[in-house]
Structure formats: structure tokens, C-alpha cells
């Protein structure tokens, strides 16, 4: 896999150097850096690697992407400059005419947050796994230790299509499916981004449709300290190296023990302000050790394997990261709002 990534880098850079125009260059960008490109295909196969190899390959993949992207930008600059020089030499230009403003697009803030989280966990050796948004009741609830009639189902008021089919209320079903499909019942390290749906009234902090990113690690000798270390690295990456986290006891049916995770306030540094409601801490996600029942239902030996899981909302992270006070801003397509997030 390492050799394949190095081959892709050399191959892409060679094609970039040969690109004769901007269209050809953009085709190369899509072919190699797009979500259906060969680098992504390599990363999807990381689940077959050993725990020691995954971080190495993840880091190398990020380096290869950056090297290709840098080369493309350099080539683009050169091609654009050459095009300007060609036009200057072949056309007469009235320099007194006013310029024409060009509207350029940029990443949606939620897309930017999701990609930032994905890049972080890919570098830590995780794989990205997706699943259906229209889900079976079994995977959405029962395989996660929520049998029919369980009172905790009321925590996630659902859109049912039939008695057994619904719009998924979280991305945890992807974890259940991944554990079930793992025929060797060996280690797993994945994150699962995607849309989820709940019967909720839309207001400044709630939406009937939103995004989740959930993570799952299954292996031998996994402990709460592994979970804390992972989430600490995540918090420092997203909110700054000075951030600290704390774990508070909570309840989720699919984890035991369960915790709510807070990050020290990045505005006041933990002294107390309007953002953290004078507490010095801001809640960012829920997590815990995978419940033995969930492991057993997926075919794992809970005496041999342990694991941890966590779930976060990109909207919540983006609101905190960028100081957005209303979740509805992310979905109204107001250009005045979206233009604030243009990348340099």
C-alpha cells in the first residue's frame, strides 16, 4: 500500500507537469484528489492493515495528497500566467476599462469541518465507512442494545416509514453493520460521517436533519484511557493546542460506562464567559466503552475484545469554532453568511 501511494504521487505529478491547459489540470485534480480517486480507494482498504501500519499509511496518504495539491497549484499559477502573457501579446487591451468582479465558490462550513475531522482520523489510522440513511430498525436500535419497548428509544424520536424501516437517527448503525460484516471478528478502527434524521422542532440549536460523525475502535486491551487520549487529540486539533477535556458520567444504552465530553472554553480559557455559561467548559460530544451486549450481538467475544465509541455533531463543532449562534444559518444558503467562510 505504501508503494502504491508513492506510485500515485509520482504518476500524478508527472501528469501535472505534462498538462497543457487548465481543463486538463482540473481533470487530473478530480481524478487523483476526488472522493472516487485512487488515493481514496487505497484508504478504504486500510481496514485490512495491522494496527501498527494504519497510522503510517494514513500519514503518508496525507503527505501524498498535499504534495499533489501543491504541484497542481504551482502548475495552475504557471498556466494562468502563460495565458495572460499570450493574451497580452495577441490582444490590445484598454486598461482604462473597469475590471469585472468574479464570484468564486468555497467550501460550506459544515463540509470544511467534516473534512477536517476526517483528515485528523485518517492520519490516526482510521477508515471512513458510510451506510444507508434509510435503515432497518434492527441496526438502528436492536443491534445497539435498544430492544423494542426500551424507554431510551424515546430519546431519539424517529421518522418511521414502516414498522421495521426508518430514517436513521444516528450513524451508529454503520458501526453495527461494520462489526457484523467483519467475518474475522478482528480489530476495527473507523469513523462514520453522514446525515441523520429525528422528529425535532427546528430552532436555533435543533434541526430535524443534521450531520453526525461517530467513531468506533474495537481491539484487545482497549481502555478508557485510550478513549480519552483520542478525544484529547481531537479537541486540540479542532479548538487549539491549549484546550483540555473532561469526562462526565452519563448514560447511553450502547456504551457502558458512558460519558459526556467537555472542552475547556476557547474564548475565556476556562475562566467563565457568555460562551461557556460561566462554567469554563463547553459540551462537545458523547462517548463511552462499547457495551458487551453490542459486541456479543455482532459476534465478538466480549471477554477478549473491548472497544470505545464516540459521536459528535459537525454543526455543534462549527457553531463553537466559528461563533455561529443559529444552526439554521447552515441550511438557508444565504450567501452573506457563507461568504464569511472563504478560505484564504
Automatic annotation (TrEMBL):
Protein's UniProt name: Phenylalanine--tRNA ligase alpha subunit
Annotated Gene3D superfamilies: Bira Bifunctional Protein, Domain 2 (3.30.930.10)
GO cellular component entries: cytoplasm
GO biological process, one term: phenylalanyl-tRNA aminoacylation
TM spans (from-to): none
Catalytic activity: tRNA(Phe) + L-phenylalanine + ATP = L-phenylalanyl-tRNA(Phe) + AMP + diphosphate + H(+)
Binding site residues for Mg(2+): 256
GO molecular function: ATP binding; catalytic activity, acting on a protein; magnesium ion binding; phenylalanine-tRNA ligase activity; transferase activity; tRNA binding
UniProt-listed Enzyme Commission number(s): 6.1.1.20
Keyword annotations: Aminoacyl-tRNA synthetase, ATP-binding, Cytoplasm, Ligase, Magnesium, Metal-binding, Nucleotide-binding, Protein biosynthesis
EC supergroup of this enzyme: ligase
Membership in a protein family: Belongs to the class-II aminoacyl-tRNA synthetase family. Phe-tRNA synthetase alpha subunit type 1 subfamily.
Record's subunit section: Tetramer of two alpha and two beta subunits.
Pfam family, one: tRNA-synt_2d
Free-text remark on how the cofactor is bound: Binds 2 magnesium ions per tetramer.
Cofactor(s) the protein needs: Mg(2+)
Entries under CDD domains matching the protein: PheRS_alpha_core (cd00496)
Main location: cytoplasm
Aminoacyl-transfer RNA synthetases class-II family profile domain ranges (all copies): 111-320
Location of this chain's protein in the cell: Cytoplasm
